[in-house]
Amino acid sequence: MSPSAGNLIVDGFDLISIAKEYESAGASAISVLTDFKFFGGRKQHLSQVKSNVKISVLRKDFIIDEYQIYETKYIGADAFLLIVKIIDDVQLEDYLWLAKEIGLDVLVEVHDKHDIARALKISPYPKLIGINNRDLETFLVDINRSIELCEILPDDVVKVSESGINSREDVVKISNAGFDAILVGESLMRAGNRIGKIFELLGKN
């Protein structure tokens, strides 16, 4: 889901069924939006999903203080998204250390070369980095953003391409560029057959 797509959480939204579909289709993890203001998400959504699947659950929200990190652990998440662009360098380092201390993984999200430089100057630098293909100012999406920035990341970083991945062709292009994983939201939520869509993206059709 994305701001430009509007709120995709509607009446009749059965997040447990959706989560189980993702898991059965082969998803490695499930990302759950918990931001209410922009997405209509709720923290209890994540707790409900975590109680019904065996795979890892990622909290997707605007994390800007330490309380939210402790909260993330409390509601049952295995990991959370940390957007470099909305926090300063001190926060970035402190939040990564706190997450390690309480047993949470962190998907560090970057949007450009400056974000990557900030993330990599931390010692030790994060080993799980996601490149968001969406321009936060225009909301336009271009997967070439991932491809251009991927080569900057060290070999030992698990590389994730986020947003705008809609077809098997996109996945192959991303994979050939050196990515290890993709984070897909909107195209799955809009699919009439979500399991079929995951199979398509994974090349199982």
Automatic annotation (TrEMBL):
Keywords: Amino-acid biosynthesis, Aromatic amino acid biosynthesis, Decarboxylase, Lyase, Tryptophan biosynthesis. PANTHER family: INDOLE-3-GLYCEROL-PHOSPHATE SYNTHASE (PTHR22854:SF2), TRYPTOPHAN BIOSYNTHESIS PROTEIN (PTHR22854). Its EC number is 4.1.1.48. The keyword Amino-acid biosynthesis applies. The keyword Transferase does not apply. It holds the Pfam family IGPS. Signal peptide: none annotated. GO terms for molecular function: indole-3-glycerol-phosphate synthase activity; phosphoribosylanthranilate isomerase activity. SUPFAM superfamilies: Ribulose-phoshate binding barrel. Gene3D superfamilies: Aldolase class I. This is indole-3-glycerol-phosphate synthase. Pathway: Amino-acid biosynthesis; L-tryptophan biosynthesis; L-tryptophan from chorismate: step 4/5. GO terms for biological process: L-tryptophan biosynthetic process. It comes from the Bacteria. It catalyses: 1-(2-carboxyphenylamino)-1-deoxy-D-ribulose 5-phosphate + H(+) = (1S,2R)-1-C-(indol-3-yl)glycerol 3-phosphate + CO2 + H2O. InterPro entries: Aldolase_TIM, Indole-3-glycerol_P_synth, Indole-3-glycerol_P_synth_dom, RibuloseP-bd_barrel. Residues 2-194 form the Indole-3-glycerol phosphate synthase domain. CDD domains: IGPS.
